[in-house]
Amino acid sequence: MIRRADLDYRTPAGYVDDFFAYVYDADNLPDLGNYRDVPVTIEADSDFVLRKIDGMGTVLAAAPGTVRAGQFLLKDANGGRVSESERYAQIGPGIDTTAIVPERTYPRQGAIRFDLLNVQKQLYFTPGPPFLTVPAAQFIFTGVKRYAGSEKQSTYKYRLLPYSYTIRFFIDWDVYAYIAGVPAGRSPAQQFYIPVNDLDFELWGLVDEGAPIGAGPPASHAKLQLYDSARRQRFSNPVLVDYFAYNSPLSVGNAIAPPILYPVGSQIKFDLYSMMFTTEPAFPLEREWTFFGAQRVPIGNGRG
Fold it and tell me: CATH classification of 158-298, choosing from 3.30.70, 1.10.10, 2.60.120, 3.40.50?
């Protein structure tokens, strides 16, 4: 399991960092095409510091070393090439993650731009009639929103005590809403709440305790939208669970850094969008998720 020290880094003096990811949904991009200067617009409230990219294998043809291989090229904040050549798409344990070292800053109201060569989207599909499909193609640009200001200090001295909140639930609704048996759009999200009791809680990550994930289509059984204690979304669009869960075989470095603080009395709120079909043998799917991190234990109260 992760250590708190693994989440520590220095924010420049005079700034505050909040965990965030920009998610580019490629569901509507036609396959076999090439696309230049694809933009992901940075919101107006803050600059964005990019630290890693996931999902290349869900959007591009994953055939390294062949003419069919999909390729990806990241641009800097001025639109210049970050590397001399495109990166080939791959998918597998840990190889679908690209670390951005050194990190790159994109100013507010600017854009993360990139080139895509040979799009071939990942599809999830029903195992039997009526043979419906749903695309599951997205790039996840993970980093922090950086605000001008001073880090708000705790009003008390504390030590960290490892702690987790676990929730068990069923994904028992179809990815599509139907009218007269015909898909009429994606099903709406279902909302979940975990009350934070007793002490302030730092969220470091999510572990999916259910059946193995990432074993092939359908892999991500849902998309996730996570909120902080002020009900601010932590993803620009819902993210495939396989690219956020800390124990996912498809992605690495899925810690929440800096951690998200949930004060006592608040709630860990998240929305789930089903990626499952009612015709799947595993439907409805039971999951057990553990939101792990640490409680802030006031020094001197005798706990821990």
Answer: 2.60.120
**What is the CATH number assigned to the segment(s) 13-148?**
2.60.120
Number of CB atoms found within 10 A of residue 184's CB: 11
C-alpha span between 73 and 55 (Å, rounded): 14
Is the model's pLDDT at 213 over the cut of 90? Answer: no
Give whichever of 28-32, 120-124, 179-183, 236-240 has the largest mean pLDDT.
236-240
Fold matches, 13-148 and 158-298: yes
Residue 95 has a CB neighbour count (10 Å cut-off) of 16
More confident position, 220 or 218: 220
Both tokens assigned to 47: 């600059």
Interatomic CA distance for residues 129 and 113, integer angstroms: 40
**Is residue 70 exposed (0-12), middle (13-18) or buried (19+ Cβ within 10 Å)?**
buried
Please give the mean pLDDT across all residues of the chain. Answer: 86
